[in-house]
Amino acid sequence: MVLEYENRWRIALTQAGLTKGWFRNLGIPRPIEPTYLDYSEIVPQSQGGVAKQGNINATLVWDRLSRYQLYLLESYRANATNGLIYLTLDKANGDSPGFDWIDISGQAGIIQFANMPGGRGNIKTGVSWVINAISVLVDPATFT
Questions:
Q1: Whole-prediction pTM
Q2: Which residue, 107, 25, 102, is CA-closest to 69?
Q3: Domain span including residue 40
Q4: What is the sign of the dihedral through the CA atoms of 126, 131, 132 and 135?
Q5: Count of domains in the chain?
Q6: Which is nearest to 64 in space by CA: 115, 122, 126?
Q7: Pick from 27, 30, 60: which is nearest to 126 by CA?
Q8: Which of 56, 93, 100, 117 has its Cα between 20 and 30 A from that of 35?
Q9: Would 143 be classed as within a structural domain?
Q10: Residue at 72 is within a domain
Q11: What's the chain's average pLDDT?
């Protein structure tokens, strides 16, 4: 069961476009394994400590998408001006016990996937999309 507040994922080619870019209205399911990290590398420090360094990034994973759903995501990636994509996503990084929705922009990486055996190319599995060099635009995101 997906609760209403779990389904606030949005995608757009501009920040203003986020008000209309609901995944659910586009027919794209929410990612099953979203990972938002405020670092890209953990670096050892003296005395056994560690520090976070690098760019903010997010990895979005779907267990399966149809050919059309993959096409929709790919069309956003391909049409991103200077590679920049806009998303509303859940930070889910331990800052709070609930959902932490934020609007971000970031560099859209290549979408990786595999064809489902026996699916004749119509079902894609293990779909993974990395968004790099994220800038947090609105925290918390607003919904109307």
A1: 0.87
A2: 25
A3: 4-138
A4: negative
A5: 1
A6: 126
A7: 60
A8: 117
A9: no
A10: yes
A11: 89
